[in-house]
Amino acid sequence: MAVDLRTKLGHIELPNPVMTASGCAGAGRELAQFIDVSKIGAIVTKSVMLSPRSGRPTPRMAETPSGMLNSIGLQGPGIDAFLQRDLPWLLSRGARAVVSIAGGTVAEYADLAARLSDAAGVTAIEVNISCPNVEHRGQVFACDPDAAAAVIEAVRGRARYDIPVFAKLSPDVTDIVTIAKACVSAGADGLSMINTLLGMVIDTDTMRPRLAGLTGGLSGPAIRPIAVRCIWQVREALPGVPIIGMGGVRTGRDALELILAGASMVSVGTTIFHDPSACARILHELEEELTVRGVDRLADVVGLAHQPPAVTRRALGPSTRVSPSTPLRRS
Amino acid sequence: MTHSEVDAQAGPVQVRGTVLTVRRVDAYHAMTLVAPAVAARFKPGQFVTLAVGGPDTSMLLSRAFSIHDVRPDHGGTVEFVFASRGPGTSWLAERRARDVLDVTGPLGKAFPLPRDPVNCLLIGGGYGSAPLFSLASKLKERHCEVDFLLGAASGDRVFGALTARRTGRTAIITTEDGSLGSRGMVTDMLDQVIHDGRTDVIYACGPMPMLRQITVLARRYDIPVQAAVEEAMACGIGVCMTCVLPVVGSDGITRMSRACMDGPVFRGESVRWDDVGTIPFDAFGAPGWEPRSRRAAQLHNGQARGGDNRGGNVRASRPGTEPGGDPDRGDADRGNIDTGHGHAGHGDTDDGAAEASGGGGGGGRYGHGR
Q: How many CB pairs under 8 A join A and B?
C-alpha cells in the first residue's frame, strides 16, 4: 500500500503533495498542536508583507453555502517578525516552508523576495498577486497580465536562483490562461491556483453588508468546480508548468480531482477551520484513493484527466478494483 | 494526532466525542459529550469548537461554545450550553445520545485565579453565565467568596439562576422584562452589589456592551475585571484571524488580538471596548502606523505633528485603556490575580441587540446565529 507520493515543487522534491493553503494555517504553529507539520508536503504561510499590518475591521467573516467569505486584510506582523520568529520555528520542526508574499508595489514584492533569499531555509516563494497595485489606481496585479508579469519578473530577479517562485492566480479574470502565460514568461517556476473569488453577503435583518470590508473572498467546496476548471485550462495550455491546486479541498478524493486536472500539489484551506488536522487526514485519504485504484505513483495521475479514456484505463493498472465509471467504495 | 512537546500537557486536542445527553434548559440547550482528553485539560473559561452538519455539510465553520462543566463520569465528560438560533445550532440541538461529533478543545485562555481568598463577583449575561459555575467551584477551593449577578432579557434566558442561588454567597438576578429578579440590566445593580459584597475582583461573561459597561463602572472602584468576550470565530484555533479586537498590550501598543488565542478572557481595561469593530488609527500595523522607536525619534526632533500618529495620548486617557499598564500585573494589589494560565470563556448572550449587531449573541456562541 506504499504509494509513491513524492512530487516536484519546481526542482525541489517534496515527500507528498498535501500542503496548507496560504492564510488558513498562520505560519504553522497553531496547527502543530494537531498535526506533525513535518509530515505534510509543506506549510504555505499566511502572506507576509514588508510592514506590520492590522487588517480590516470586524466582522471579517460570513458563512455561505458550502463556503465562507473572508475579509481579513492581510493582518500580520511583517517580514522582520516572520524571519525572526516564524521561519526559524518552522525549520526547527522540520517543516518545509513555502512563504507567501504580498505587497502594494512591484518594489515591495522584490524586497520581500530579497529578504527571504538572505534567510536560510525557504523552500519556495508563493507570490500572492491578488493585491491592489497602489501605483495603479488599486487595480489588482493578478487581473492584468502586464502587472502580474512585472511582479513575477521582479521577484524572480531578486529571489535566490534555487528558490522556486510560484505565482498565485486569481480566478476573477476573463481568461486565466493569459495571466498564467504572462507569469510563466516572466520567470515563474510554477503556478498556484485558485485564490478566492470576490463575493458579498447582505444581512437581510440589518439590511447592510455582513462584512465590515463590504466584499470578501469566497472559499470552500463551493468554488471547487471553478478550481478544477482553472487548473484544467492552464494545464492544457502549459502542460510542463507545475501547479499547486487549491479551492475547496475537503477530502482525499477532492485532492485527487485537482491532481487529475493537472495539479502536482494540493493545498488545503478553509477545511482546516472545522478540522484542524485536515491536512494529515486528506493525505491519508489520498493515499487510500490511489491504492484502491491501483496507482503506485502519484506522478502517474497528475493531469491524467486530459488523456483519452483508453490511456486513463491503462494508467489505472490491472490490479485496479474500480472502473472509472463506478463510484469508489471506501473500505 | 501529535502534540508538540511543549503543548503536550496543556494543549488542545481534536477528538471524536460521543453525545451523552442533549437537554433543554429553559430557552437553551445543554449538550454533554464524552470526551475524556478534553475534560482532563479543561480550566474554567476555556471553550470547545465543534464541526456541525456531518461529513457532507454545507456548513464549513466551527461552532465555538464555552465549556459549562466537566465531570469524571464515563472517563470524562464536557458540557456546554447553546441557543438554537441558526442552522448549525439547530442541527446540534437535534443530536441524540450516542451520536459522534468532531470536537476540539479545550481552547483559549482560562480565567486567571486569585492567589488569596478574596471576594469575587461573577457576572453573566444570558447563557454567558455558563462558564461561571466551574469558575465558582475553583474560586471556592481557594476560599474565595463568590457572589453572582446574572441577567438576561427574560427569566427563561437567565442561565443557572438556581445553581447561582445554591452555590453563591449571594445571587442577584435581573431581567429586562422583570419576569425574574429585579427589572433592569445587570449594570443597574452593579454599584449596589459591589458595595454589599465588598467585591475585590469581577469576572464577567456576556455581550460586548455589558462587558464594556462593567469595565467602566469597575474602574471607578479600582476593581480589576476579567472579561470573557464574544467575537465571531471561524476556526477557534488561531489561524483564521476573524475574531480580532483591539487590545492594549503590556508595552502600551494596541494590537488586533485574536479572541480565540489571546482570549477569550481579557483584562477588562486592556480591551478598547469603544473601538471594537474598528481598526484604531494607532493600532499596530494600522495604515500609517510606525514603530514607536521611529515615532520617538520624530518627537525628539520636534516633528511630532503631521504624519505621526501619536494621537495615542487621546486614547491613553480614556477609560478602558491603559497603555502603560501591565495586563499581567496590574491587578495584583486588589485581587492578586495570578495570570499565566489563562482563561476563559465566553459568554454570550442572548440579547437581541448583540445578535443584531453581529456580536455573538447568536447561535454559536461566537457566531452570528449560525
A: 141
Q: How far apart are CA A290 and CA A294, in angstroms?
A: 6
Question: In this structure, are residues B135 and B124 in contact, taking their beta carbons and an 8 Å threshold?
Answer: no
Instruction: Specify the CATH number for the domain of residue A227.
Output: 3.20.20.70
* Residues in CB range of B152: below 8 A, 6 or more apart: B125, B126, B158, B159, B175, B176, B349, B350, B351
Q: Mean pLDDT over residues A9-23, rounded?
A: 95
CA atoms within 13 A on the CB side of B260: 28
From B155, B154, B106, B94, select the one nearest B131 (Cα to Cα): B106
Specify the pTM.
0.85
Residue to substitute from A43, A63, A64, A206, interface B, most B β-carbons within 10 A: A63
Q: Are strands A208-209 and A202-203 parallel, antiparallel or unpaired?
A: antiparallel
What confidence tens digit (pLDDT) does each residue in B135-189 have? Answer: 999 999 999 999 999 999 998 999 999 999 999 999 999 999 999 989 999 999 9
Give chain A's domain count: 1
Residues of A tagged active-site? 131
Write down which residue in B107, B127, B149 finishes a domain: B107
**CA A21 – CA A17 distance, rounded (Å):** 12
Query: Is B15 touching A (CB cutoff 8 A)?
Result: no
Contact A273 B256 (CB under 8 A): no
Assembly ipTM: 0.90
Buried b (16+ CB within 10 A) or exposed e, A181-190: bbbbebbbbb
What's the domain range around B56?
13-107
| Cβ–Cβ < 8 Å for A284, A252 | yes
Hey, is the C-beta of B261 within 8 angstroms of any chain A C-beta?
A: yes
Angle at B366 between CA A216 and CA B351, to 5 degrees: 110
Chain A: closest CA distance from residue B104 (Å): 8
